[in-house]
Every structure is written in structure tokens, then in C-alpha cells.
From TrEMBL:
InterPro entries given in the database record: Beta-ketoacyl_synthase (IPR000794), Ketoacyl_synth_AS (IPR018201), Ketoacyl_synth_C (IPR014031), Ketoacyl_synth_N (IPR014030), PKS_Beta-ketoAc_synthase_dom (IPR020841), Thiolase-like (IPR016039)
Native source species: Pseudochelatococcus lubricantis
Name under which the protein is recorded: 3-oxoacyl-[acyl-carrier-protein] synthase II
EC main group: transferase
Annotated GO MF terms: 3-oxoacyl-[acyl-carrier-protein] synthase activity
Length: 436
């Protein structure tokens, strides 16, 4: 089956096409689509040494942090909210939907898991007046008093969503979600499905993450997941390379304004693209690892392509999950080979795949949304972002990774992969507007 004919505003299953009418993004490379796209296609890295907190005695001292946002040194939920506001504001402004503060649709937002961080715990412990045997109840009592009372709301999981809903005036109860590294893609998927079911004609889908702090670095280091290539920050994230040694934490946010295609056209909106397919499969193999055989990832890819009414031969480019960890890159390669076959071989050059994480690091909860925005920009600009730092190819991964230099290409259909810890696998197919 090929793409939906240009005369149709419904997909092959009779569901409304879901249009993207606005997109916004913020990463360590800059704020907004223009700055990010320029940096990506120049192959510029946003990874740098961490300066906003002490990294003494840490195994990893680099990250792709967003340090130019006011309040970036504050807690993870505070920064995550700031980043979400920037991305959503850009997306809504581009879409021209509604009026300021009155978004005529639902909110789906992926936010990082929220818990009290070490600086706050230490402050509460001191405020409790106890020097030893401090209990959780002591911390709660301290948190509910005086200057610390605001922390109660700050570290509740749904607070960021409530604040975003209030700021932009979205309709109904906001949906907060966390599906590990696929969260941003899941937020988009939920928005797409709500529009397809006729529950809303518009949705604001966001993925955001500003959670680079010492505790997070230590936790990922204990899992041996992070790169320790500290001497060369820009060269640390090396997806699909033989000498890859782990991912680099990143921060950012991505947002889409999604609309029923007919409703968007009726109000004269510019259609940027279509979220044509979504695929999701869970994997109970391990709490952090995905199945080495790639079974659930393969199923998620196939489901996304089929949901879009396409065949594997219709896909023009793959925006890889591409974390730069030894296990994930190998698994993703196997999964893509299983679905797309010989088209994936670098020698054929017929189906390129590249990883934005080589430049922006792994933005974790935000990654699926950030990379969906970049997938859309790939279609709109006809240019493939490269996988930088690809100096030592892995002979076990013989893919066309668009090494080191961006490439012009005609792209109408992109598969964007997101494979998260604990086997959360979500894939999106984004296409050009029918007839464009």
C-alpha cells in the first residue's frame, strides 16, 4: 500500500488524517527550529563540560545541558517546565491556532520522573532540626513549613502539566506521562489517537526534560550507561561506531500542534506534515535493557509503518534512536535490518539512518518529541542531518549512517524510532502533506 491519495483527508482505515500545524524545539544547540536545524546540518555538537554544578569525583563530567535558560541551575521539574514553555510557545505561534492563553484542544505532555533531589533533601534535613536518624516523616514536616512549602507542589508528578495547561489554556485534564526514553513519542501518539477517535480536533503534544544533575549522572553511571569520554565532550556521543561507550545526557523539549486535517484546512492553517503512523510495543525482558533479539522493537516499527498505510519500501529515511550505547545500537540495527532488509546495507545506500543524539545527546523524556520535530524538518528541508563522530565504523553494523556530513535528499516519509529503558518502544511515521 502506498501513501494516502492527495484527494483524501482520511487514511486507509477511514480515520482523520492528523496534521502538524506547529512545531517547536529547544536543545543545547539553541532555542527554536532555525537555530537547531542550522547547527544540526552543520554537524555541530551541543555537548560540553558541565559547569552549573560540581562534578568532582563523578565518572562522567559532560552533558548537553541547556544553560542559557533563566533558572537553568534550578531543579529538574523547574527547568523541564521552562523548556516546555519555550517549545510549546514556538509551536502554538507557528500554528496560529486559537488565541493567546486559549488553546482549543487537549494537552499531552511527557515529563521526567520527579522526586526530591539531593540539594533539597539536604536543606530539609537541616531544617528538620535533627542531626541523625532522620525519618521520611521528618522531611515531610519540614517540607510543609515556611519557605519549603512550595517544594511540595514542585516535586509532584503532575505539576508541570498543570502549569502548562494554565499557561496555554488547554482543554480538559492535562495528561502527564512517563514511558522512559520513548515518552516524547508517546505524547505525540496519544494526541494522534485522541484526534483519530474524534475526542478533540486539536492537541498540544510535548516532551520535555531538564534533569541533568549529579544524582542522575551517578545513577546512570551505576548502570554503566554513560560515556566517560570526558576529555573530548563534542566527540563523546558516537552512535553506531565501534568505539561507542555510552550515551551522553542531554536536555531539551519538543512540541507539536496536532490537528484534524479537515479542521486545520478549514481555518486556513499551513500544514507542515502528517503524523501518519504510530507503533508501540512493550518489552518485559529487563528493567533497563531491551530484548537483544530486537523482537518488540521490530514489532513497533512494523506497526508504525502499517498504521501509516505504508510498506517498508515506502520509508525514505530513519531518524534513529541511536543512543551510542553498545547494546542499543546493535539492537536497533538488527531491528531495522529485520524490517527493511537489504535496503539498510550501506552499500545499497537506499535507506539512510542517522542519529541526532550524536549532537544533542540523549534528551531522555524529551527525545521522542525533539526527534519528531527534527524528522519533520528533514522532510521540509530535504536534508539529512548527519551522525557525527563516526570515525571508526562497527563492522557488525553496516548501515548508511549519513556519516559526519549532512546530505541533500528527497524525503517524504520518515520513521522516527524511540526505544526506552524497560522496553518502552514507540515509533512514529511522519510524512509530507498529501499532494505536497
Amino acid at each position: 500500500m502506498t501513501s494516502v491519495p492527495s484527494s483524501s483527508t482520511r487514511d486507509a482505515l477511514g480515520r482523520p488524517l492528523v496534521a502538524v500545524t506547529g512545531a517547536g524545539v529547544v536543545t543545547s544547540l539553541g532555542q527554536g527550529k532555525a537555530d537547531n536545524w542550522s547547527a544540526l546540518t552543520q554537524g555541530r555538537s551541543g555537548v560540553h563540560r558541565i559547569t552549573r554544578f560540581s562534578t568532582d569525583n563523578l565518572r562522567t563530567t559532560i552533558a548537553a545541558t541547556v544553560d542559557y535558560v533563566e533558572g537553568a541551575v534550578s531543579s529538574a521539574p523547574f527547568l523541564s517546565e521552562k523548556l516546555a514553555v519555550l517549545a510549546a510557545g514556538e509551536a502554538i505561534a507557528q500554528s496560529g491556532i486559537g488565541t493567546p492563553g486559549d488553546f482549543p484542544g487537549a494537552l499531552f505532555i511527557a515529563v521526567p520522573p520527579v522526586e526530591m533531589e539531593w540539594p533539597q533533601r539536604i536543606a530539609l534535613a537541616r531544617a528538620s532540626g535533627r542531626t541523625d536518624d532522620i525519618t521520611y516523616a521528618d522531611l515531610l514536616r519540614a517540607a510543609g513549613s515556611g519557605a519549603f512549602s512550595a517544594w511540595h507542589d514542585l516535586f509532584l508528578f503532575g505539576t508541570v502539566a498543570e502549569h502548562i495547561a494554565e499557561r496555554f489554556g488547554t482543554r480538559g485534564s492535562p495528561i502527564s506521562l512517563s514511558t522512559a526514553c520513548s515518552s516524547g513519542a508517546t505524547a505525540i501518539q496519544l494526541g494522534v489517537e485522541a484526534i483519530r477517535r474524534g475526542e478533540t480536533q486539536a492537541a498540544l503534544a510535548i516532551g520535555t526534560d531538564g534533569s541533568v544533575h549529579a544524582e542522575a549522572l551517578i545513577r546512570f553511571s551505576l548502570l554503566s550507561a554513560l560515556s566517560t569520554h570526558n576529555d573530548d565532550p563534542a566527540g563523546a556521543s558516537r552512535p553506531f561506531s565501534k568505539n561507542r561507550d555510552g550515551f551522553v545526557m542531554g536536555e531539551g523539549a519538543g512540541a507539536f500542534v496536532l490537528e484534524d486535517y479537515d479542521a486545520a484546512r478549514a481555518r486556513g492553517a499551513t500544514i507542515l506534515g502528517i503524523v501518519a503512523g504510530c507503533g508501540e510495543r512493550g518489552d518485559g525482558f529487563h528493567r533497563t535493557r531491551t530484548s537483544p533479539d530486537g523482537g518488540p522493537a521490530i514489532a513497533a516499527i512494523r506497526e508504525a509503518v502499517s498504521d501509516a498505510g505504508l510498506t517498508p519500501d515506502d520509508i525514505d529515511y530513519i531518524n534513529a534512536h541511536g543512543t551510542s550505547t553498545p547494546e542499543n545500537d546493535k539492537m536497533e540495527s538488527l531491528a531495522c535490518l529485520a524490517v527493511f532488509g537489504e535496503r539498510m546495507n550501506a552499500a545499497s545506500g537506499s535507506l539512510p539512518i542517522s542519529s541526532n543524539k550524536s549532537m544533542i545527546g540523549h534528551t531522555l523524556t524529551a527525545a521522542g518529541a525533539v526527534e519528531a520535530v527534527f524528522s519533520l524538518l528533514t522532510i521540509l528541508n530535504g536534508r539529512l542531518p548527519p551522525t557525527i563522530n563516526y570515525e571508526l565504523p562497527d563492522p557488525a553494523i553496516g548501515l548508511d549512517v549519513v556519516p559526519n556530513t549532512a546530505r541533500d535528499a528527497t524525503v517524504s516519509r520518515v520513521l522516527s524510532n524511540s526505544f526506552g529503558f524497560g522496553g518502552q518502544n514507540t515509533c512514529l511515521v511522519i510524512t509530507a502533506e498529501p499532494g505536497a
